[in-house]
Structures
1.
Amino acid sequence: MKCSCCGEDHIICPGDLGRPSALFAPCPHCNPHIRVKESPVSPDEIVNGPCQCNRRFIDDVMASLYQVLQTEGVIKGTEPLSALGTPLICPGLFLRRPPVLPSRSLILISDLISESAAEIAYRKVPELLGVVYHSHEFPGPGDVRCGCEPSIHEGRLLFGCDVRADIFLCGKGPVIIIKKQADLHIEFPKGIDPKVMGVEEQVRRFHPDVFIDACAGPGTLGITAALFGVPEIIMCDVWHASVWSAIQSIRVNKIKLGISQISIFKDISKCPPVWGGKPVLICEATGEKIHIRLYNGSYEFLGSDLPSGKRLTVFDPFDKDTFRKNDQFLSYWNETIGGEVFIP
C-alpha cells in the first residue's frame, strides 16, 4: 500500500503476509556477523554490502551509517556503534534473531544527527527509510486534564519517511498498526502481546456489542476487538498523531475487517495537537458487520456519542498506575456508561 506521507509503496497489508518473520530472515547466501555494539567502526573497514538477495544484515547497515556520519563530522569515530541511536525495522515484529534488511526498511531515532547529515545518510545507505530526531522525552501530550495547559512533546522527521507498521499477532492472525514514529512513543511487538491478548480474553468473556477504546493511540486494541467480531467500535484520543495513525490503521486492515466504506469528516492535520474537549468525529468506517467511529477529544465527554448495547471499555493510558487510583472517575464511568471496564 502507498504511504500517505511519502507516496512510496512501503506499507505492508495483512494480505501481503505469509510467515511474517520471513520478511527479515537470511537467505542461504547471507552471512550475518553480529558486531559488538560497544565498539566503534573503523573508517578503513570495508563493510559488507547487500547479499545477492538484495538484503543486508542490520549490523552492517548500522556500520555503513556510522562511517557516513563520521565522514560528515557528526561523530568523532571514537563513539560506540550503539551511540547512533535506536534502529526500528519497518514493519516491526517480534524476531528471535537480528534481521536482514531490504531497501528502505529501517528508521533511525537519534538526537545527534543534523538534517543535512540525515539527507546524505539516506542517499548513501539504501536500507534507511528515515531519520527522526527525538529528545529524551516521550513524544505526545502531557497532562490533559480539564483546565490544564497540556505540555506537548514531538519528535521531528529529519529526512525520508517516518511512517512505519507494527505487526501484532492475535488469535485471528496479524493486526497491522500504522504509526508516524516522530510523534508516537515506541511500542514494539513482543511476540505474544499482553494487551492484545487481554482484549481477546475480555471480548470472548463478555461478548460485548460495543467496544470502547478510550485511549486509542494508533488503534491497536480497537482493531483487535473488531477482528474478534465486536460490531460497534468506538476509538478516541486527544493526540492528533494518534488519531492520524488510527485512520491509517483502519485503512490498512480494511479488507480483513470487512470494511466497505471509510469516511473522513475532518482533516486531523489541521486540528490542534491536543484536543481535550468534547470528542469530534473524525473518521467512520462501515461494513456489513462492522461499524467503527474514531473521535478526537477527551473520553470524559464521550457519553452522549456512545451507541446502546452491552459495553466493554478498555483504558490504556500512558500512566496506568495513576489512572488505576482514580476511583472517582472509574465510579463515574460505571454509573454513566455502564458495562465492563478493564485496564490492560
2.
Amino acid sequence: MKKIFFFLLLSGLFFAQKTEVIDLSKSIKDSKNTYNSFRVIDQRPNKEIGSILFHKNQVNIVFENNPSKDISDWFYKYNKAKGNDKLVLLLENISISEDIKEKYSIGKLELRASTFKKKNDGYHFVNRIDTIATISSRNTPYLAQSLAKKITLSLADLLKDSYNKTTWEFGISENDLASYNSILMDKLDILKSDTLKEGVYKDSYSFFTHNPEPGYTIETNSKGIATKAVKSDDKKPIRNFYAFVHNGVPFKVIPVGYVEIFRDEMRLFIEVKKEELFPEPNNSSMVVLGGGIGGLIGSIVANVAIVAIDASAAKKRNAMAGTEVSLDPLTGYYILPENFGKSK
C-alpha cells in the first residue's frame, strides 16, 4: 500500500511540472556572411530561467539542451561559415517571474545580452539588448509559451541588428567582459568634454565617441530650425542623422523633429512624449522640441522655443507632460521608463 501511494505521489509531481522549450527556429541569417565562427559565453548568475503556473501546473521555461549549444546550433543553421570575423554572444541575464493577481497574472521577462567581435587584441563591443517585457494572462492564457517566444524574438533581433552595427574600436579581455559596460563608459569622450564639437553625427557610435562627420556645417531656415547638413554641394536632411551639435547645444533627432540632450551625473537624457518617439503614421507635423536652462555640458543656454510647422501640433505638445528618457551610450537606444506614455 505504501509503495502504491509513493508511486502515485511521484506521478502527481511529475505531471504537475511541465516544460516550455524555447523554440529557436526563427531565421537569423546574415545576408552578408560576415562571420566565420560564433560562440556563446553564458555569464548568467542564475542558470535557471523561471516558471509560470498554468492550471495549477508549474511550467518551466528551458532551452532544449543549454543556451551555448542551442543558440550556436541556431546560428549555424542559418549562417554558413564564410566570412572572416568571429561573433560572440554574451548572455548576462534571462529570467522569468510571475505576479499572480486575484483573477489574472502577469508574466515578466528580464533579458540582457551583448554581442562582441573577437579580434586579436580582445573583444570589441557591437550591440546589446537590455529589456523588460510583461504579458498579462488577460491577453493570453499561454504565458509560458508567449514569454518563451519573446526570448526567441529578442535574441533574434539582437543578432540581426548586430550584423550591421558599428564595431567599437576598444578591445576588452575575456576576463574583463563582466565589466565591459563600465570600461567602455570610461572611454566616452563626449561624457568628459567641456566643449562639444559642432556638426552632425551619423550614428550613436560617432556621437558618444565624439566624432562628427568632417566638413559639414548646419543650415537653418528663416525660423532658426536646423534643416540640413551641408558640405560644399552635398546637402543632407538633418533627419538623416542620429544627433547634432549647433552653437554648443546637442540635439537628438527623433521622428517628429529634434530635442535637446541633457546630462546629469549619471546619464544623457531627453525630455519627450510617447507620441513624439512613436508618432501615429498619419502625423506628418514636425515639431522642434526644446529644453530650458542647461545642457549636456552644463553651461547656461537660452530656452529653445517650441517651433512647429503645424501650429496645432505645437499647441498639442504644450498640453502633454514630457518624460525623461535616457540614451544608452553603448547602443544609442532609448531607455524607456516603466509605464512610459501611460496616463497616471
3.
Amino acid sequence: MSQQSETILSRGLSRRGLIKAAGVTAFAATAGVIGARSTRYAIAGNLIPIKLEWTEVAACHSPVGFGLAKGIYAKHGLDVELFYQGSSGQTLIQALATRKAEAGPGLLYDWLKPIEQGFDVRLFAGSHGGCQSILVKPDSDIKTLTDLKGKTIGTFDVMSPSRVAFSVALAKAGLNPETDVTWKVFPFDLVAEGVLKGEADAVAHMDPWAYSYEKQHGFRRVADTQTGTFKDRVCCVLGVNGDYYEANKDAIKRVAAANLEIHQYTARHPDEVAKWYFDTLKPGLSLEDLTEVLAAFTYHDHWFGKDLLKEVQIGYEDLKLTGVIDASTDPAEIAGRVTIDIFA
C-alpha cells in the first residue's frame, strides 16, 4: 500500500459516429435502465444513505458488492444501496442522469463524452486497471493490433466499453478504428461463438468472460487494458453527480475511503472476494478461475488528486484521437474542471 493510501485509511473517513452520437443520447436519456435492480443488505446505526450504481456482471465491480456485504461501507458511515445499471457504459450515465444513483464506478472513457456535452459529473477516484481484452483463436495469424486491419471484431454492444477502449488502442497503433476494422455486435454471451463460427476474426470483451474464452476455447490474448498503451493506466473511475457532491462532500469522501479499503483488501485477498462473487452472482466460472481473474487486476493501484487528474486529461486526449471528443476541447482545462482532489 502506498504511503498516501495508508494516510487516507488511517483517517477513518467515517467514435466518431455511433459512440459520439450515443453520448448525446445518454446525456438526454430520461427512460429507466433496462433490467435495472437494487441491492441492499441489512444495516444498523445512523448511517448516511447513498445509492451507488455498479455493473453487477463485471468481474472488476465484484469488490463493490463484496464491500457492501461485508460491512465495509457501513464501517465508513454509509448506508449503501447498489443499483445495477446494466452492462453498457452509456446506461451508467443514464443511471446518474435519472437519479437512480448518486455515484459509482465506470470505465473512464464512458464518462468523458457526456461530461464534455454538459453532464454535471465530477470524477473523484480511480479504482483499478485491467478488465478488457481482445482475443483470437489459437490458430489465428493475428498477433498484434496492427494485424487487425481489414478484420472483423466481435463485441457485445455497439458502444461496449471494450470497443471504446480498443478503438483508442487501434488508433495509437496507426489504424482507423472506424474504417480499418469492422465491429460486429453479438449477444452478450455469444460473442465467442461468432469467432468460432468464422463470423468475426477477434473478440473484444470484458472479464470474466474474456478470461473464460481463454480457458474454454484456448483463445489467445492480443491486447488488454493492462499492457501496451494501457500499461499503468486507470481503467475504472468513480464519478458523482455534481449537485449531489456539492451538498454531500463528506459522503463522497467516505465513499472514496471505503472503496480504497475495499480494493486494497481485494488485492490482498482475491480468493475471499471471488468466493462471494461465485456464491452470490454465479457468473458461470469456477471459483478457481474467478480467483485468478480478480488476482490479475491492479487493485493495489489507485488514482487520486494529481494522479487522477493526469488520467482524465490523457483520457480526453485519447478520445480526441478517435474523433469522439471535439477537436476544440481542451483536455487539460476540462480535466481540471471535473476532477476532484477528494482527500485534499
